[in-house]
């Protein structure tokens, strides 16, 4: 692709100012040089969009600024991981497991005796204190504590939990809740 000599000269004339602007944006000479080069490449590729008689330097600065901001937004979402260690350390629990676990929990809760289920739901799920749950159920605090303990043990048995960390996986949030509840 050939470029009009006057356009080429005005692009070359603007290059030192583009470089200074790029350095002020990036604070990195190498990155700034890459940004200027990419700006000039885009300008050449889109030279038909430049309107003769307008300010070439302003047009180039706009391209450079837009490139910088696009790359900045992109880099904010990316993590440099050349050796793959960061990616290898990432793990996500499958999406379907919480739904299946919830179904299992519902089935197991339905198999508990009514008084144990009620006590466990008041204390474990609704967040009432033992004293508040005892008042709601109209019984002694010790009775509520006993019902909750028996309900937890029976739930673990019904759901075949033997080792909380192994059964619940690496999710630290679930583990912390189960240890607090247990």
Automatic annotation (TrEMBL):
The keyword tRNA processing does not apply. One of its GO terms (molecular function) is sigma factor activity. SUPFAM superfamilies: Sigma2 domain of RNA polymerase sigma factors, Sigma3 and sigma4 domains of RNA polymerase sigma factors. Residues 16-77 form the RNA polymerase sigma-70 region domain. Pfam families: Sigma70_r2, Sigma70_r4_2. One of its GO terms (biological process) is DNA-templated transcription initiation. Keywords: DNA-binding, Sigma factor, Transcription, Transcription regulation. The keyword Transcription regulation applies. InterPro entries: RNA_pol_sigma-70-like, RNA_pol_sigma-70_dom, RNA_pol_sigma70_ECF_CS, RNA_pol_sigma70_r2, RNA_pol_sigma70_r4_t2, RNA_pol_sigma_r2, RNA_pol_sigma_r3/r4-like, WH-like_DNA-bd_sf. Residues 103-155 form the RNA polymerase sigma factor 70 region 4 type domain. It comes from the Bacteria. NCBIfam families: PRK12547.1, sigma70-ECF. Belongs to the sigma-70 factor family. ECF subfamily. PANTHER family: RNA POLYMERASE ECF-TYPE SIGMA FACTO, RNA POLYMERASE SIGMA FACTOR RFAY-RELATED. This is RNA polymerase sigma factor. It comes from Microvirga tunisiensis.
């Amino acid at each position: 692709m050939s470029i009009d000599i006057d356009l080429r000269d005005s692009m070359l004339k603007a290059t030192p100012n583009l470089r200074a602007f790029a350095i002020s944006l990036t604070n990195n000479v190498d990155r700034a040089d890459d940004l200027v080069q990419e700006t000039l490449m885009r300008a050449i590729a889109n030279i038909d969009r430049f309107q003769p008689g307008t300010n070439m330097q302003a047009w180039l600065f706009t391209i450079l600024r837009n490139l910088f901001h696009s790359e900045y937004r992109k880099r904010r979402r990316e993590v440099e991981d050349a050796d793959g260690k960061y990616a290898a350390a990432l793990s996500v629990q499958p999406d379907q497991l919480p739904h299946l676990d919830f179904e299992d929990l519902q089935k197991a809760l339905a198999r508990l005796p009514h008084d144990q289920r009620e006590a466990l739901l008041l204390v474990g799920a609704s967040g009432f204190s033992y004293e508040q749950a005892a008042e709601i159920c109209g019984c002694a605090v010790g009775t509520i504590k006993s019902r909750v303990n028996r309900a937890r043990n029976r739930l673990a048995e019904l759901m075949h939990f033997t080792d909380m960390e192994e059964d619940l996986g690496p999710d630290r949030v679930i583990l912390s809740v189960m240890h607090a509840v247990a």
